[in-house]
Write a structure and sequence with these properties.
Layout lengths: L4 H10 L3 H66 L2 H4 L3 H14 L4 E6 L3 E6 L8 H5 L7 H7 L4 E5 L8 E9 L8 E9 L1 H8 L1 H9 L18 E7 L3 E5 L18 H4 L5 H9 L4 E8 L2 E8 L5 E8 H4 L1 H47 L13 H25 L1 H17 L10 E8 L7 E8 L2 E9 L4 H25 L2 H19 L7 E9 L4 E7 L5 E4 L2 E4 L18 E4 L5 E5 L16 H8 L9 H16 L8 E8 L1
Antiparallel strand pairs: 1-2, 1-5, 3-4, 4-5, 6-7, 6-10, 8-9, 9-10, 11-20, 12-13, 13-14, 14-15, 15-18, 16-17, 16-19, 19-20
Helix pairs in contact: 2-8, 2-12, 12-13, 15-16
């Protein structure tokens, strides 16, 4: 199915109502402006939010790192103090247990354990730490019980404690316990505590930090990439080399359900969605930094703190949550804009409906006028509508006058059409064409009927041609044209029969017509300019008489020759005398006769066609290359092109006789 842009535009736009076009125009003008301005404002707002988030996330990561460091240092000092008591250093079972129980009553969110390197656990309290056999203490895997292993080497530290050494993942703080003997400081065991991540967040204050970061009455969810939870916040600890602890802390007290701890070694990390985050932390430069990372199509923003050797803290938020307030604001703005546009469209429709009523009234009035029905005039209130109604009333009145005039002149118009038909009968339809002569002619009246005429007929071997123009235009001139034409044709036949001489025939015929018209109709001051020619093919001569007419032109080869006058116009002076001329008209030459409608044809600027252009057209070809029809058609096209739509000034008559 073929289609075009113009057809599509016509279907989608041109055929719509003006009210709909106006509404669409309002939307098309306002929506792009709103989109552009709101988009620029949104980008600026997001940049401002990103700058604030950069500072906030880095500050949160720093705070979390500082709070963890403070808690770690303080808690290890407390454990070192506890481990220095003789009851603990001596691993005195019942007495050591009583002492640990008293401490547990003050700090119930910790699990405590005293481990003897040689006998295993001496005492434990709480639900997190599991019993340990001496053999396990001798072969501790660092990935599962780093703090145990370091404490047995005399190093106090905190690290994740994982099964089978704990019932559930927790953070263990362990210090060495030195024996009571005289052999110097010998590590005899480990004093350790373990705390769940939830309780760790509560005792360190990180819970309140995350709650503050979420910034609302409803806390944002905690991110868990491996569980498919990709929106919200997350606090991550990355322990070298590449171990990750996700502090999923959203609760505000120790009674809430504990979130899980992730302790991923390097091999496990490669299978985790958290890998880009951990790699980012490992490559971060400086004590603090800010990064943007994309994981499975979701963008995340991260503030990083590396101030503590061996530990990196990351505060992570997804960009959708980060920009949710701004996005929500602009969604609200857009909804408001759409609502405003909707309301304005309704108001516009209502207003344009009222505005369209005058046009509907005008349309109905014009429809009645088109069917000739004239109702009462439209009211003419003040303002634009009143002027519009006034124009319609004025047009209605003028149309009524015109229709009345048309009815009165209907008979006259019919008579003019009949007169034109009758006049056309005066013009020869079958022009003479012999082996020696071609004749072509054109008659183009300026009004319904014209005052020019042409004639051509055979007269005992002669070919007679006539081109004439009655003065003035319109019906009177057309009536006199019929008289002139009939008298001249009759006189030519009569004089030829009387004399048989071409020259005498032309002179006597024109003289008799002039005598009759000047004496009988002289008071009407109607006259005619006439060219009459008679071509004798046996002699190769043209006999002619030019009575006040435009000089006919002979084209012989490339030479153009005008024919001279032989007397004044016919019908003015009864005493006038006319003299015919003769010239050679050999084979291949031609005669062009025309009325003054040819040189007087005017362009839109009012400039006449002129005789020089006629001569130029004749010079386009030698005479033997022209045919009679071709020359007539060439002149007609040239005149029509020159006039370029301007009104025809006078009747146009052309006649060409070519000798073959």
């Amino acid at each position: 199915m073929r289609w075009s842009w113009s057809a599509l535009r016509r279907q989608l736009w041109d055929e719509r109502s003006q009210r709909l076009k106006l509404t669409i125009a309002v939307w098309l003008s306002l929506v792009p402006v709103f989109m552009l301005t709101s988009t620029v404002a949104l980008l600026n707002a997001r940049q401002a939010v990103e700058g604030r988030l950069r500072q906030q996330l880095i500050w949160d990561a720093e705070q979390a790192s500082q709070w963890l460091t403070f808690w770690d240092d303080q808690h290890l000092r407390e454990l070192q103090l506890l481990a220095s008591y003789p009851l603990i250093r001596g691993f005195r079972g019942e007495l050591a247990s009583q002492m640990i129980d008293r401490v547990y009553r003050y700090f119930p969110h910790y699990s405590y354990a005293l481990l003897n390197k040689e006998t295993g656990i001496v005492n434990r309290v709480g639900s997190l730490i599991r019993p340990v056999a001496p053999q396990q203490l001798q072969r501790l895997p660092e990935d599962l019980a780093d703090s145990y292993a370091k404490a047995l080497k005399g190093i106090s530290s905190s690290a994740p404690l994982l099964p089978p050494f704990a019932n559930e993942p927790c953070v263990a703080s362990s210090v060495p316990v030195y024996r009571l003997n005289g052999e110097g400081a010998t590590v005899g065991g480990v004093m350790t505590t373990c705390i769940s991540l939830q309780n760790l967040g509560w005792v360190t204050g990180i819970n309140r930090l995350i709650k503050g970061v979420s910034g609302g009455k409803n806390d944002l969810p905690i991110i868990d990439l491996d569980a498919g939870k990709r929106r919200g916040y997350a606090l991550l600890l990355v322990l070298e080399p590449g171990r990750l602890i996700e502090l999923g802390l959203g609760a505000s007290g120790p009674q809430q359900d504990a979130d899980q701890l992730r302790h991923l070694n390097v091999k496990q990390l490669s299978q985790s969605d958290w890998e880009p985050i951990v790699r980012l932390a490992e490559t971060a430069q400086g004590p603090t930094s800010f990064h943007a990372v994309s994981i499975k199509g979701v963008d995340y923003l991260a503030g990083v703190d590396r101030s503590k050797p061996g530990r990196t803290v990351l505060m992570v938020v997804d960009s959708e949550s980060a920009y949710s307030t701004v996005n929500g604001l602009f969604i609200g703005i857009w909804l408001g804009i759409l609502a405003a546009l909707g309301v304005s469209s309704l108001v516009l429709a209502r207003v344009t409906k009222e505005f369209a009523r005058p046009f509907q009234a005008v349309g109905e009035a014009l429809a009645q006028l088109s069917h000739g029905q004239f109702g009462p005039p439209l009211p003419e209130p003040k303002g634009d509508v009143g002027r519009l109604f006034g124009y319609v009333n004025q047009a209605s009145q003028q149309l009524q006058v015109y229709l009345e005039s048309t009815r009165k002149h209907a008979a006259t118009d019919a008579q003019l059409r009949e007169a034109r038909r009758i006049q056309a009968d005066f013009l020869v339809r079958d022009l003479p064409r012999t082996d020696q002569v071609q004749v072509a002619a054109l008659f183009q009246p300026a009004y319904e009927i014209g005052a020019d005429w042409y004639d051509a007929f055979a007269l005992d071997g002669l070919t007679v041609v006539v081109v004439a123009d009655v003065c003035d235009k319109g019906v009177p001139s057309a009536l006199y044209m019929s008289v002139f034409r009939s008298l001249l044709r009759l006189s030519l036949r009569k004089e030829w029969q009387a004399s048989g001489d071409p020259r005498s025939t032309l002179e006597q015929a024109v003289d008799s017509v002039n005598q009759y018209m000047a004496s009988t109709h002289g008071e009407s001051a109607m006259f005619a300019t006439v060219f009459v020619g008679a071509f004798a093919p046996d002699r190769g001569e043209l006999y002619y008489l030019v009575a006040g007419h435009e000089a006919p032109l002979l084209l012989r080869g490339q030479e153009v020759t005008p024919l001279p006058l032989g007397g004044p116009a016919v019908g003015i002076f009864p005493w006038a005398r006319y003299e015919a001329g003769a010239c050679a008209l050999p084979a291949g030459s031609l005669l062009l006769a025309y009325s003054d409608g040819l040189p007087d044809a005017r362009n839109p600027e009012g400039v006449g066609f002129g005789s020089n252009r006629v001569v130029q057209i004749l010079h386009e070809h030698p005479s033997h290359d022209w045919s009679a029809d071709a020359l007539v058609n060439r002149l007609q096209r040239s005149v029509d092109g020159y006039m370029d739509g301007a009104d025809q000034f006078d009747d146009l008559t052309l006649l060409v006789l070519r000798v073959t």
